UniProtKB/TrEMBL annotation, chains A, B:
Coiled coil: none annotated. InterPro entries: CBS_dom (IPR000644), CBS_dom_sf (IPR046342), Mg_transptr_MgtE_intracell_dom (IPR006668), MgtE_N_sf (IPR038076), MgtE_transporter (IPR006669), SLC41_membr_dom (IPR006667), SLC41_membr_dom_sf (IPR036739). It comes from Halomonas alimentaria. It is a multi-pass membrane protein. This is Magnesium transporter MgtE.
Amino acid sequence: MSLSESLNMHRLALCQALDEEDGERLDALLPELRSADIAEILEAILEEQADPPRALALLGRLPLERRASVLGHLPGDAQLVLAEALSDERLLTILEEMGSDERADLFNLLDEGRRQRLLRRMARREREELKRLASYEEGTAGAIMTADYVAIPSGMTVSQAMMRVRQTAPDAETVYQLYIVDDQGRLAGTLSLRQLMVAPPGEPIDALMIRDVIHVPVDEAQEAVARIVARYDLLALPVVDADRRLVGIVTHDDAMDVVESEATEDIHKGMSIGSLEDGVSRVPLWSLYRKRVIWLVLLVFANLFSGAGIAYFEETIAAQVALVFFLPLLIGSGGNAGAQAATLMVRGMATGDVGIKDWGKLLGRELLVAGSLGLTMALAVAPIGIMRGGEALALVVAMSMVTIVLFGSLLGMCLPFLLDRLGWDPATASAPLVTTLIDASGVLIYFGIATAVLSAA
Amino acid sequence: MSLSESLNMHRLALCQALDEEDGERLDALLPELRSADIAEILEAILEEQADPPRALALLGRLPLERRASVLGHLPGDAQLVLAEALSDERLLTILEEMGSDERADLFNLLDEGRRQRLLRRMARREREELKRLASYEEGTAGAIMTADYVAIPSGMTVSQAMMRVRQTAPDAETVYQLYIVDDQGRLAGTLSLRQLMVAPPGEPIDALMIRDVIHVPVDEAQEAVARIVARYDLLALPVVDADRRLVGIVTHDDAMDVVESEATEDIHKGMSIGSLEDGVSRVPLWSLYRKRVIWLVLLVFANLFSGAGIAYFEETIAAQVALVFFLPLLIGSGGNAGAQAATLMVRGMATGDVGIKDWGKLLGRELLVAGSLGLTMALAVAPIGIMRGGEALALVVAMSMVTIVLFGSLLGMCLPFLLDRLGWDPATASAPLVTTLIDASGVLIYFGIATAVLSAA
């Protein structure tokens, strides 16, 4: 039985036991399900059945530790619904069991009054840590890091460090990469548990540790953090403050989540869709409408430039209506080629493959490639021009094709760089924007060439 | 100094030392650079300067272990260039130092004769393992897994297992997740090193281990593998054969690489660009041209349907040339809305958020959202219709807008599901394809409505 089959079977059995309020069966089934899977079922209960009491009852059947882990797997809106249905006391016990990064994320969702009430009931140390982690700006290393790492004071021996690892093991997010800090809390070095395990027990860790530790400042962008974790195959990446004091670590699984969600965001931006908080099947209809309508209406007005171009050339068109035959084809081709060029650049910039310093070199390459593409497409379309309206029309269409594809590709390539220079996200240079700009230019180029050639003929 | 600044500084110094053939300085600089960074410099030497001997000289200055690790970080084409310049003997020593997954990848790039020569010089056990790993189909769990995992025979005690971990540590890809196998080599359970460390030394591991291990078959698609690693926050995912025998593990860093490259591939497909072997700034011009031209030319011919539609309605157009004014606007808007819908579905399907079972529910949602979008855009464009040609034209344009946006969105939503049903990759339902199909339908809808309304008026 495959993983997803067994998951579906378990899910069905659980839903049935829930419907029948069969407590015994629930208690038998729940230990067989993983937190991520229970979270998915809870989410479905909350969204399809809009039944928070039922979700709470299911959550309440789990041991405390799993309650925290399941809650951590839920998207923000579902967490908030459940948190609002829980008493301060019950929420507090769950918060205490959560990882420090997930705790801070949930805390940030609550309203100000509740946050103050919860903070007052926490121990001082816990309170300070939570306030600190909750204060980092979203999208930075600080917002995705955890404070549950293993820090070893400089000067310990291997066996002392090993003892420290054993003590910290239950609470730490990872015990496999250790960070050595000096008496000021500054990051002095790192050591993997693997290295520690094979080292002589009496050896000072300062002699073993790697001093040149890859690390990031707390305000580093999360995309950059994820890229560093991926590039150097790290288990965790230490995060330091302005004084190089160690304040947290970003673990590989959180970095992977960033890579996934950044890719989704870039893909949506590439189609002029604002970023969605949740999957497309679950996000509210109103927000789906809102995320899509803004750009669509803006593009309607941008498209009016094409209309204006057409109005300007109305005489040429009236004189030879066959010109209209090629209009969608020509502006469509320019738009497609331009969207391709923009997509290649935007993704290259997002993965760090392309930088602004490569601009000159890439411009030369794009000129060559787009020129060849334009010529190929002109050759493909010229015979149809002859068939529809003779050689003069074929010439106009072929010339327009090369010019429009070349212009469209260069525009598509330059726009992401230009936006980046202006301090905007290059992913905003989306296919619809590029296409609309090229549509308008394409109209002018096509009818401009047509007017020149046909009036000369 | 930030990570990328220090990296750039080191890179510059290294390139200078290379130019001046300053061996002493090179030997001082190389230990300060990480394998991923040296690989990037080697790649630049190979591609910008096309100078394999120089790259080989740099590689030769590294200790053997790093040579293997740097080679593993290079893209396939660069690995092949270097491998072809190395003698069998030197290549063999490097291959022996590489991780088993990277070794198999490089091996698969070599020509048949060389593979046979190399295999003959290997020890029997090594040879069998390499042949096995190299035989798995690309894009499956087998192709990205490593055979360097820690397997603990069932029946050992905690202290025996610990001893085994210490022995295996130098060669294993990760020692932090251990896999317990029975005497047939079948996967019986798993245990993290963390759990092992805090357990009593005399305890049998069979009493401690988790028996319900998440695992995948060796022919599982790599996207599914990566999704499971991400979903359950795994350090590594065990891979089993048809008899449930453990044959390898996929580690978190390899899963992350899959997530990144799959996202890039989907983004490129979304713009009708074939998958590129390498970053856009480095891929050869000819292959960039080829990956883009096929779809562009196909779309040229698809666009001819729009032209045919226009030819059919030529009389209507000749009677009211003002209709052409709104043509790019209407078909552009339909294309944009359709591309948005297609993008949302394709990405939702890729991340596992949307399945074919959600189709009915999503269709209803899309009808509502697209209907609202169409109405909004019709309201935005109607006043311009009145300005340009009176109320009849405004009515035609508004009705066409609603119909085209609704039709385009539904087409964009259904196409990915349809392709999936046909066994194709839904990402092929790219924006240019959706746009082109909607262009043609838009022409028919617009001029059809125009002919009906204007001839009635």
